[in-house]
Amino acid sequence: MIRAVVFDLDNTLYPATECYEQGRLALESFCTTHFQITRDQFNESFVKAKQIVKQQLGNTAASHNRMLYCQTLCELLSIHPLSYALKMYDMYWESAMRKMVCYPFVRPLFHKLRGKNVKIGILTDLTAHIQYRKLKQLGIIDAVDAVVTSEEVGTEKPDPKMFVRILEKLKMKPRETLMVGDNIVKDISGSRSTGMIGYRISVEKTDEVIKEILSFIE
Ligand SMILES: [Mg+2]
């Protein structure tokens, strides 16, 4: 019997890719206005900055840290990072957060799960600070019983350590727990290898998401 549902956050509970694009556009506008570079130069450098950070850090939460992307971007564009990287980081997240709202199924589903005494967990690859900020912005932070980020585990999904940690926090056995996510490898294969049940989300069909997730519980 399912007594807990663990959700991935990005692109599962809200459209992360669209929000990140807003952040990137804000940086593009700032850099092309202030530093006499073209949009192509900006975009080439932004992609390269991400690649450099990811290559250096591998499967860690810090590999997604926009502070490091902005610092590396400044270095690539020969802009003094100490003068601009923090400003750019804040600008990125302010723009991304402004667009950040839950998919329509999230609130009614959380309400129903809580009504059935089913615990709610969040299992997510990124740094704790920014994921807490997202949960607050999405208005669901108080409805979540436990969160695990890859920052605190030191590795990312699909590493079993991530799934074991959220089960420990929720005090649940794998078979009592449903993992819901958008990524077949990270969320679904990862959870199944730990003995949890995995459900891949299809956000286009809101009604079906609620119905199908509740069918595991009822
Ligand atoms: Mg995701």
Describe the structure.
Helices cover 56% and strands 11% of the residues. The protein has 218 residues and is an alpha/beta fold. The protein has two domains: 4-14 and 101-215, HAD superfamily/HAD-like (Rossmann fold, 3-Layer(aba) Sandwich), CATH 3.40.50; 17-98. A five-stranded parallel sheet has the order 3-2-1-4-5. α6 links the parallel β2 and β3. α3 (66-76) packs across α4. It is elongated, with a radius of gyration of 19 Å. The model has no long low-confidence stretch (mean pLDDT 96). The structure holds magnesium ion.
Question: Brief description of this entry?
Answer:
The radius of gyration is 19 Å and the shape is elongated. Helix content is 56%, strand content 11%. It has helices spanning 16-34, 39-57, 66-76, 81-98, 106-115, 128-138, 150-153, 160-170, 184-193, 206-215; strands at residues 4-7, 119-124, 146-149, 177-181, 197-200.
Secondary-structure map:
Layout lengths: L3 E4 L8 H19 L4 H19 L8 H11 L4 H18 L7 H10 L3 E6 L3 H11 L7 E4 H4 L6 H11 L6 E5 L2 H10 L3 E4 L5 H10 L3
Parallel strand pairs: 1-2, 1-4, 2-3, 4-5
Helix pairs in contact: 1-4, 2-3, 3-4
The structure holds magnesium ion.
Magnesium ion binds next to loops.
Summary keywords:
218 residues, elongated, single chain, 11% strand, alpha/beta, 10 helices, 5 strands, Rossmann fold, binds magnesium ion
Task: Note the main sheet.
Answer: 5 strands, parallel
In helices, the fraction of residues equals 55-70%
Number of strand elements: 5
- Please tally the helical runs, counting DSSP H or I stretches of 4 or more residues: 10
Would you identify the regions where 5 or more consecutive residues have pLDDT less than 50? Answer: none
Which structural class is indicated by helix and strand composition?
alpha/beta
- Beta-strand residue percentage: 5-15%
CATH architectural designation of the largest domain: 3-Layer(aba) Sandwich
Shape: elongated
Total domains, how many? 2
Strand order of the largest sheet: 3-2-1-4-5
| Ligands | magnesium ion
Helix and strand sequence: EHHHHHEHEHHEHEH
What's the CATH class of the largest domain, please? Alpha Beta
CATH 4th-level superfamily of the largest domain: HAD superfamily/HAD-like
CATH topology of the largest domain: Rossmann fold
Mean pLDDT: 96
The radius of gyration over CA amounts to: 19 Å
What is the rounded distance between the termini? 9 Å
